[in-house]
Amino acid sequence: MLNRIIEWSARNVFIVLLATFFVVAAGVYSVSTMPVDAIPDLSDVQVIVYTEYPGQAPQVIEDQVTYPLTTAMLAVPQSKVVRGLSVFGASFVYIIFEDGTDIYWARSRVLEYLNYVSGRLPRGVTASLGPDAAGVGWVYQYAVLAKNRTLEELRSIQDWFIRYQLTKARGVSEIASVGGFARQYQVTVNPRLLQAYGVPLMKVIQVIRDSNRDVGGRVVEMAETEYMVRGRGYLRGVADIELLVVKAEGGTPVLIRDVARVELVPEERRGISELDGEGEVVAGIAVARFGENALDVIDNLKAKIAEISAGLPEGVSIKAVYDRSELIRRAIGTLTWTLFEESLIVALVCIVFLSHVRSALVAIIMLPIGVLIAFIVMHRMGINSNIMSLGGIAVAIGAMIDAAIVMIENAHKRLERLEPGAPRLDAIINASKEVGPALFFSLLIITVS
Predict the structure, then answer these.
(1) Do 53 and 90 touch, CB atoms closer than 8 A?
(2) Are 370 and 443 in contact (CB under 8 A)?
(3) What is the pTM assigned to this prediction?
């Protein structure tokens, strides 16, 4: 069959050239739309359920949070493994799905079962889904630097300005903040004063919770004008918390400041972020969405950083500390140079040993076409361009070059032994049939690689 294909192709040059044109067009389209990354994503399709239960020990979280969630997720369709992890103050449940499962279909199924099991969790505890990212979604990291700002101020800038702006970049799933100090209001009660005033600790917690909200009412009509009734009760600072009333006896109120100390202090933390061994910094980690082009995501992040840099406070700057695009571009550059280098060697071999320039064009033209065919197959199979796939193509180019040189040399030998007046096309066809299988398997190797 392969011999018939070779003979038909040799006798229908125009159709072959037309098909080659469409193959090149499809290959260029595949290359331009194919996701590019440095690291191959070998992770399973998984959905992470994250639950916070502050102040609780791992055993309590295991019994009251992780176990109910894990047992409920066992019934999720197309799930093959469910794993649970309980740590101090938090629970993680990993639902791993069968290969080929759509990530967003899996997330919707997990969300359905999560709504069902939410009633079995402790009061006030809410489970949430993790970001829709792959295992290699960590594509970019930056540090927020300033000489005249504290770590607390830089963390506030990161949390309330930079993070929200970068989340809008196309392809970004999450911007995670690390390092620095997150601000929080801390109420430190004095147990002796609580006992003296006869105020239970839960009363203090309840008063603060109930006082930090706005209350809406109906409308009041006056002079053909409606006025909305609204009770403004949001706490806006330390002074507002200190003046809350926890108890009143004989017309004398007991305030929060009478039984506790209210401060605006950094939140407790269990780790730090350091840069170049020169001290702590505030940093942000950008995670790309599942299936997105990592190179495009990084470019979108850089464009967004350049856009918001003008709006940062004076002296504050953003410095990239991890940028995967450099590794991606180096991998692409390696393949490009290998293709150019191999084409040049083939051209020199054909010109020096065969003294025929047009013969060199056969191998030079077929090398990039063979690579484009590989990209077409990769695009159809959903495989992205990464170090492994590009390296396989670069290695397979050598096998393809060997077959091309052998085929060209065999055709020349046939033409040299050709009797005067004999048709040249038949000689070329017979030469191609002898080495055609080798060339076919070389193309197959480069495509599979």
Answers:
(1) yes
(2) yes
(3) 0.74
